[in-house]
Amino acid sequence: MFVGRVTSLNLWDVSFNDSEIRSLPRCVNDQRGNVIAWRQFQKLEGPFLISATKCDDIDNCASTPCENEETCLDGQDMFTCSCMKAYTGDRCDVNIDDCVGNSCQNGATCIDEEESYTCECRFEFTGAFCETTIVDGGWTTWGIWGPCSVTCDSGHQVRVRDCSDPEPENGGAN
Ligand SMILES: [Ca+2]
Ligand SMILES: [Ca+2]
């Protein structure tokens, strides 16, 4: 029983001398054995481990197996995806987690993107990393009453307060 790896086999019903064997063209599809050609042998069932040779190989990248427009490298009976950008995995289908070691602050949620991330802030924070606290303006206490507009009958008096305690900051209410 044959044990091993068969990568090519052609059988002829004539014998060749050494120089004729050496002169047989390689990787030419129409130059095949007239008893059995590799193309037929490939279809036989047996205890063989058959793999395509350079001569039989196809473009394994033809089906564009790599995702996210990453580069496919054709190999012998295989392909390799070369992930240069934001992805990893055998088919460049796994988005690299850019949230690892992220700089989002104050309990923000990190949103992974392509070669970057964004911070989704809790409501009282803002900034790219949610590092800035939003301060809503607050009322001061009332000032003292002003003078009455008349000396008798009905008049009016004025007192004021401002929205400045604290001053609104970073987009807070005012
Ligand atoms: Ca190939
Ligand atoms: Ca990512």
Notes on the protein architecture:
The protein has 174 residues and is mostly beta strands. It folds into 4 domains: 56 residues, no CATH class; 40 residues, Laminin; 36 residues, Ribbon (Laminin); 41 residues, TSP-1 type 1 repeat (Single Sheet), CATH 2.20.100.10. Helices cover 6% and strands 17% of the residues. It has 2 helices and 10 strands. It has a two-stranded parallel ribbon with strand order 1-2. Strands 3-4 form a two-stranded antiparallel sheet. A two-stranded antiparallel sheet has the order 5-6. A hairpin with a 2-residue loop joins strand 3 and strand 4. The radius of gyration is 40 Å and the shape is rod-shaped. The model has no long low-confidence stretch (mean pLDDT 86). The chain binds calcium ion (2 copies). One calcium ion (CA) binds next to loops.
